[in-house]
Structure formats: C-alpha cells, structure tokens
Amino acid sequence: MTISLYDATVPGYLQILGAVEKVLERGAAHAREHGIDPAELVEARLYFDMLPLRFQIVSISHHSRGAIEGAGRGLFEPPESSQSYDYAGLQALIAETRQALEKIAPDAVNALEGKDMVFQLGDRRLPFFAGDFLLSFSLPNFYFHATTAYDILRTKGVSLGKRDFIGRLRLKT
Question: Which residues contact 19 (CB under 8 A, 6 or more apart)?
Fold first, then answer.
C-alpha cells in the first residue's frame, strides 16, 4: 500500500479537528451547567509554566491548516501572538480550520513533497523539505497541542474520555 503526503496528514488533521470541535462543545456545556465563566477555561493551564487552552487551540489550527499553507509558501513561522480569542472564538477557529482543510485537494498537498521550505523562529531558520516538515515537526506538534487541550478541559472537570479525543474513525464502508 502506498501512502501519499495528503493521506499521511490531512485525514488525521480532519479527524482530530472534528474531535476537538466536540471536546470544545462539551467544555462549553460544562461551563454553562456549572456556572463557570468560559474565560476561565480559555486561560486554564495544566501547570503554571505551560501555555493556556487558548494557545493550544491556536496551535492546533496553526500546525494543521497553517502548516499546509506554510509548506505551500515555503515558510512557516509561529502564529501571531497578539490574537486574542474568547471561548466562542476558539470554537470558530477550529471550525474554520476544519472547513478550510476539507477544501484542500489531495494533489495540492502531494505536490508539496520534495519542495524546499523553512521554519523561521526569530533569527533562527531551519531548512526542511515540505513533507519532512509536515511529518516530523508539524504533525507531532498538532497531536501534542490537541492532547494538551483535551487534558486542560479534563482537569477542569469536563466529562471526556478517550473516544472523545480520537473522534470519528475512518471505518471501512
């Protein structure tokens, strides 16, 4: 079985983005039911020196849609840190990210294979081939931030389980 760059990235992004949408819905319902200000969830952290839910959700978007777009441009940089989102804004960001990825043609992603690109962090520039960047840097970061977002909401009492994280499986039809 041959697997393409598209197959190795976009379907997994979509699966977890759909799950994150539902996890965020569960978080919003939990906040309503328990009289919790959603802003408390937005700024919640697992540990004092870790970044909050807001950052995790922005990073999920950035390491999926943003990674594909950056690979296409040949340049990937950290997301704009000045963006401020409330809980509903985070939900909208994930929905927009999923919708944008659903529109990307497999050929467009597969055409990135072998393309030169750079990850730039301040003055530091890391050269990659686009496929290696997506598979060795962006995809692991995507899953890390999705897991951390799930864990933050779980520690805030949102009733979630493993199936909520995994989302909709791509079952044989």
Answer: 146, 164, 165, 166, 167, 168
